[in-house]
Amino acid sequence: MSNTTETTNNTTTPIIFLDTVGRTIMALPDASSDDSVLTVKNPVVIMVGGDNSGKMSVQLFPLFFREFLADKNADVTFSYKKDSITLSNIEAIDFRLQAQYSQMFSKTNSFVAPEQQQQPQQATEQKVVNLFDE
Fold it and tell me: Which of 31, 43, 102, 114 reaches 20 to 30 Å from 67, CA-CA?
């Protein structure tokens, strides 16, 4: 598998590999990778689950949440020793999975702190309703 970044329609194709504890990781390859180290940006763990009806669901969980960063739009970079991971030869990823990944790290989907979220306007004067006539 090539560690170079593929570009199609201005999107970068993520790579998939297994880390040392067997998690399936999807991330964007970083140019600073070399022969012994794979450096990736914005890695996520792919979690596959099921329910009692037999339906399966796929969820992506970031290895490190951007909400914990001072710059919420910054990329998170991780480096893995190539002799400790298992690289896949997957060259094409289903567009739905890739879209979910891209949306997670979209710069326009930046985190807004709860205190910065706009609260709905409350009426300054509330009408009192009596339930019983006395």
Answer: 31
